[in-house]
Amino acid sequence: MTKLLPAYRKRLPCPTPDLQTLIKELLVIRKDMLQKESSYTDLHKVHPRCRKSARNLLHYLALRLHDVRPLQVQLSALGLSSMGRAERKVQATVDALLTHLHTLSGKEWKTNEKPLLCHNEGRRLLEENAEALLGTTATDRRVRIMVTMPSQTADDFALVENLMANGMNCARINCAHDGPVIWERMVTNIRRAEMKGLGKCRILMDLCGPKLRTGKLTPGNAVQKVRPVRNDLGQVVRPAHIWLHQQGTTCATTSAETGLCLPVQGGGLQHCRAGDVISLVDSRGAKRKMNVIVAADKGCMVTASKTIYFTPGTKLFLRGKSETKEKKKIARIGELPRKAGTLRLQPNDLLLLRKSTEPGRSAYYDENGNYHPSSIGCSIPEVLDDVQVGEPIWFDDGNIGGIIEQKEAEHLLVRITQTRPGGKSLRSEKGINLPESHLHLPALSKADLNDLAFAVHHADMVGLSFANTVQDVESLLTAIKNIGSNVPGIVLKIETPRGFDNLPAMLLKAMETPLCGVMIARGDLAIECGFGRLAEVQEQILWTCEAAHVPVIWATQVLEGLAKQGMPTRAEVTDAAMGERSECIMLNKGEHIIEATRALSEILSRMQDHQTKKRSLLRKLHLAEKFFTNEAH
After folding, report:
1. E strands within 346-480?
2. Which regions of 306-385 does DSSP assign to beta strands (E)?
3. pTM of structure
4. Taken in order 190, 195, 198, 204, is the CA torsion positive or negative?
5. Which pLDDT score, from 0 to 100, does residue 319 have?
6. Using an 8 Å Cβ cutoff, are 604 and 595 in contact?
7. φ, ψ (nearest 5 deg) of residue 384
8. In percent, how much of the chain has pLDDT > 90?
């Protein structure tokens, strides 16, 4: 270490920036910005309230055509702005730098062109647009909270009331679920909560869009597994509790411990008494017995200390407590629901993705010994025509990956390349992503147009899922105009590489309306762009939208562990805090959604004392105060 000290202490040269070179480079950038603005011929179509923002967006895009990193380093060395936060007021930032650089060089710089926006006006425009689209927030935080409405909010007013009381500012209604009757009851409950003094709550109707999903699968077996709770040594610490009830009657349990209700056929349950034993042979041929602990007119509660597999028709035999040998058949298990169909897939497996609506099935060998791979359908069959051999495909939010090996008229042959260790089960209604395929999908389906008619009359915002091109946005605007004079706010959901690449052009088209916003739909976006690129992509979306003064909704898996399981991960909390750079954060539904809403509100309230957008705020630091207080003692 001693030998390294001289070299370590040697100072690197710090050359003084050439002021004339910096001025020349900035003048080139400024000229390019103004030229790019003047060459955009559709600026007159932009809504008057958005026109300054559209011009600033054009300036920002022109700036980002240049690699300004060397310029930033030199500006910082002079103690000037490095343009790292120029998004909201690009021309004003460049003009201020030119003024200071000329002053440092002993010259005066004047221009007849007044900057498009002053330094405060860009911030004001973004705040005004956010408030107009997303509504106001609680006084102690800047970022709004949007919550996806679960179906029960249609009938559970207390749930809506609690969500709003704990920080919800916007409600998202997902058009992929429920229907107009349920949606209208949700809207009614939200408006009713507003009237109780809980503040305004904006409503986003999220259109389904052309979401590819897996088709139906052949149902599994009608079987119900019951097992007791055992400790690490395999000893039973709590037997399984089962309520046997007459088929056609309500399952009226009498114990909080029961985990299962089974219907039975036959009238023998009325002969059961507490202390009796019911025996059976389960679907595996295993002999089992159950102890009756509670008996009622139309059912009884039994316990089992061994695992049992019940199937329809399983015979039940009663042995009374006073009887030692005689068994009497009393009933049989009634109808049971079939398990949802699944395909168990592992790397190197083959999968047929078919156009047919016939239910798919697992791989099998026919009577001639020929192998048939697993198969499943697709919700939009015509999309398969756009896919090419060699392109990747993902299922179930990226949990299963594959490569297209073969393309036929009625199906694609997929070679599975990636799953979890041990394989992964694929079910129906799971998402399909084709990140490298150029798909010819309409922006709005017939179902979307029907849902849009409801949204225009009941919602404050409409979400355009899988917004990919300017034509997609134009289709939405045309459809809204055909419905009536009311124009809700437009939210573009960026979920694909095409949507990301075309974002500036789509923003300028959406800005032909008074209000628009962007949702970073990070679920599909991560799969389509690649997880490694997601952080970079979402940053660029934030920058671009800030330049357009367009509010951003940060969505997908925010505090998902807390919302669904009641406990967040450390990464989730950090992710939620990072969302403070947006104007709104969306939570998905879950059993603990009220706790998640309250927790997110607290995180955002704390974080805004330290961060706003890209700027760190240097409030009085508790650590520094504590350090110097301790030093004084």
Report:
1. 350-354, 364-365, 371-372, 374-377, 392-395, 400-407, 411-418, 424-426, 432-433, 461-464
2. 308-310, 315-319, 328-333, 343-345, 350-354, 364-365, 371-372, 374-377
3. 0.82
4. positive
5. 81
6. no
7. -60, -20
8. 69
